[in-house]
Description:
This protein is α/β, with parallel strands linked by helices.
Amino acid sequence: MKITHFSNSFISITSQGESLVCDPWVGKANASGWQSFPEFTAAELTDQLADAKWVYLSHLHDDHFHPETLQALGLLNREFLIKRFSKPILRERLKRLGVTRIREIEAFDIQKIGPFEIVIFPQLSSNSSGLEDEVNYDLDTSIAIKTDEKVFFNQVDNPLSFEDLKKIHNYISENMGSIDVACLMSGAAGEYPHLFLGIDQVNEKQRIVNGSLSDLVRWLKLLSPKYYFPAGGTYLIPGWLSQFSENVAQPTFSEIVEYLGKANIPTECIALEGGRFLEYNSNFTQISVSSKMSPIVSDRQVATEMHRKDKYIYEEIKSPEWHIFTSLLDQARSNWEEKVVREGYGIKQSIIFEVYLPLSLMDGKLDVSKHLGTYKIHEARELIDGTLSIHIDQRALFACIVRSLVWNGVLGALCLYERNPNRHYPTDFFSLNFLTLNDQQIKQFHDSVGF
């Protein structure tokens, strides 16, 4: 078994001359608000993946399912392995790309694929913190892979709670054996706290990092792998929002090693990100760690500086006049309200969009001279539930409601937030994915305005 970690959740597993690649992504994701790191040339990656016969996609977020990467690396003719989701969105998007071989696998069902035995685990909770959420969360997955009598568990960024992990660990132990190698995500792969205004971002970052390290200790004690490497949820922030990079709530590798050492965790912690690989010897008793790849840039600060002047994709989008724009928002809000009522979602907070053209800062504060207007999506029933204010560029908001951009990516990377009180209501936030026009409404708009 040979495991290579390129970046984020982009990993390959090789055995007996055949490879399975997981979640290949290079370049921009989340509506261009994330940049993969480290970066490699397409030629080098294509060479590294020449033996890949299978591609596992954990879910449809575009730092995992990235059509541009699949095309650039020549992977569309491979067999794709995905969970059989309740809504076949990922399958249909793969078909539209021209993929002809898609194997949908039931959760908790071991499949023999070449030299590998694999099992896909579903998303069992909406978040790892156990916060109440009413939005359907059949989205993320994790995978266990057995080959050469070794077991590799890849969490990806599936938000498993500790109880979820117990269930998965019991299944692996009973059906595959003990875990030899595990990659687990550390920290937050999202917008909090670095994109939130009016909070102590430094202390909130440290609180989240400390909590994730404490969770990591519990996870490793439970799973007891011989080797562990951190993977998933790592990226750069390009463009003008890169000024918030320092407060992304992710621990460094040295912080992880130090914390695990103080906790006396016997698992060996290995840094693989950047194209390094872990490989067992011919007797499958010992490992070596090496690399045959050279990232374009391996220093995070240098890479961030390289991308500091990158433009966001919404900056190329034209948005309508404010009075037309608000009428579209009225229709989208009506669609959202219908979905909320139909599904019985209990929306707690007032939700307000503060709209700018462009969204920008001046002297470290929002440039109010660019503020176009305020649009309230929902009024809280109870004052105590407070308000979520979302500061957003009009072009990004327009692109989301006409479904040119995906809400999840824009919300996770390209907005600034204020929250009073500073409390997260997952249902409120996730429900905004339904704030869109339907096909007929989009057609009527284009026909009437000529966009």
